[in-house]
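We modelled the chain as a single entity of 66 amino acids. Its sequence is:
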Amino acid sequence: MRLRQSEIARRFGVELQATRFQDRDFSLSQVVIPRKHKTLEQLKRSRAAANRPKPAEHSKERGIER
């Protein structure tokens, strides 16, 4: 049973995680879902972009009207 579940899980590209039982019984409800993590460089870029003033706000501060 466990081999069959692990074969199916491998086909879908997921990793089975052992449950808390001593016999290391595997359950498809304990599937590990891979998450997308940002690198530190990507986090720095996104934070810098969030802190940058928008062009419309910036021109109003200078007194320039379009």
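As a brief sanity check on the tokenised model: The CA atoms of residues 55 and 61 lie 10 Å apart. The beta strands are 15-18, 26-32.
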